[in-house]
Every structure is written in structure tokens, then in C-alpha cells.
Amino acid sequence: MTKYVGCIDLHDGQVKQIVGSTLTTNDNELSTNYVSTHSPRYYAELYKNNNVLGTHVIKLGSNNDIAAEEAIKGWPNKLQVGGGINIDNCQDWINKGADKVIITSWLFPNGELSWDRLKQISSVVGKDHLVVDVSCKRVNKENGEITWVVAMNKWQTLTKTTLNKQLFKDLSEYTTELLVHAADVEGLCKGIDEELVVKLGEWCQGLDDIKIVYAGGAKCIEDLDLVNKLSLGKVDLTYGSSLDIFGGNVKFTDLVAWNSNNNDNK
């Protein structure tokens, strides 16, 4: 059964909601939907008080370590931390109180997935404490086929890794959770990538020990039911800019109620 999963996006030490496609190295190109007056810890405690499990804290760029640590203190040993995670600092974040670390660009040196790096970091923190971020962009092939390719470096660089069932099966040896931002629709609040959600559900069929979290475009409470139907209950959903706690119209309390009412959630 699909459930709602929380997020705390950090940019320059503040909680923000950003249009994913504008997240480049040039801040002048940045399109920001919301800048919160609340601290990261405020949101961590909000999620804690409402038992929104699996919440991820994403550091978008530099100057976010202190803010991420503040969030962790609001809900120790329950939050996931991503952004700039590598073999040198992964255990440090676990020691600071993160439940899991999210590995992204470090896993793709020269734009190609390094299985050696994945094995290494999985052995250090343990597969139960590792989330692999395979956020992606849609690529249309000349033959009309649609594929989704992993994007790194703030989702600006396409890697050589295409999402598919075999990839998910291979990754499941080293992690128990995958995070998938649909970068093309991230922050737009214009609807999820329905075709991608269908595929995510297909690709993780038979992989009972792995969890899939999708983010990007969620705009209404009905999207939870939509993702549940499209993925056959295999994919969880994150809301960002559309959520009222981030300046949007979707009520946080409604999402919490969904999780509570569907208590057979994984």
C-alpha cells in the first residue's frame, strides 16, 4: 500500500522548495517556490509528532551540514540524509543520528555507476542504512521508446545508467530503499510522471525487500490513490511544493490521515 513520505529540502542552510530543473551551479537561474521561516528542526519535530516515517533530508549544495544536523536532533535515528554523501562521511552521519544515508553523485564517477563504490559504502553502513538515489530524467529514443536515465550533479548531468528491472534487482543486493525524483516535473506541482510510476511498480515486482519512494509533481491528495493504483501499492509518494506546510494547497493533515487510515502500509 502506498504511503506518504516526508521531505526536508535544504538550500544555503534554509528549508526551501525549488524547481528541480533550475537547480544548477548558477544561483541566478534558481527558481524557488518557497522559503520557510521555520527551522529544519521544526519540520523534523512535525514529522515526528505525526509519525511520518522515512522522511528524507536533502542537502542541495553546500552550507547545509549544520541545518541537516539540526533536523536530525529533532528526530534522532529516524531521518535519512542525502546530498554530498560519500565513503568518507557516510558513517559520520549515522553517528550523528541519521537512520539512513542517501548516496547520489558519488556513486557515479565519470557518469557511470560504480558497483565497487556501492559495495564499499553498503559494507560500511549496512544495506539497511543505505538509500540509493536513482533520480532521473525522461529520454525519448529515436524509435519512440521512452526511457528514464539517472541524472547526477543536481540532476543536470545524465549518467550512463538507465532505470530497468535488472538494475533494481542488482541494486537490491546492497540497499533496501531507492529514492527516485522525476527531475523533469520536480517542483512544478503539475502532476506526477504517471508512466514512470507504472514502470517503478513493474521493476520492483518480486523484490519484496526493497522500498521505492517517488518524488516529483504531486499536486493533490488524490495522487496518493493514483500512485497506489499505478504501482500496485509498491511505490510511496513524497509531496513538496504543493504541501501547505511549504506554502501549497495540499493539507499535511490529510496526508497524515491517509497513512493512518491505511495502516497496512509497509
TrEMBL record:
Its main location: cytoplasm. Pathway: Amino-acid biosynthesis; L-histidine biosynthesis; L-histidine from 5-phospho-alpha-D-ribose 1-diphosphate: step 4/9. It comes from the Eukaryota. It is found in: Cytoplasm. InterPro entries: Aldolase_TIM (IPR013785), His6/HISN3 (IPR011858), His_biosynth (IPR006062), Isoase_HisA-like (IPR044524), RibuloseP-bd_barrel (IPR011060). Its EC number is 5.3.1.16. NCBIfam families: hisA_euk. It catalyses: 1-(5-phospho-beta-D-ribosyl)-5-[(5-phospho-beta-D-ribosylamino)methylideneamino]imidazole-4-carboxamide = 5-[(5-phospho-1-deoxy-D-ribulos-1-ylimino)methylamino]-1-(5-phospho-beta-D-ribosyl)imidazole-4-carboxamide. GO terms for molecular function: 1-(5-phosphoribosyl)-5-[(5-phosphoribosylamino)methylideneamino]imidazole-4-carboxamide isomerase activity. Keywords: Amino-acid biosynthesis, Cytoplasm, Histidine biosynthesis, Isomerase. Belongs to the HisA/HisF family. GO terms for cellular component: cytoplasm. GO terms for biological process: L-histidine biosynthetic process; L-tryptophan biosynthetic process. This is 1-(5-phosphoribosyl)-5-[(5-phosphoribosylamino)methylideneamino] imidazole-4-carboxamide isomerase.
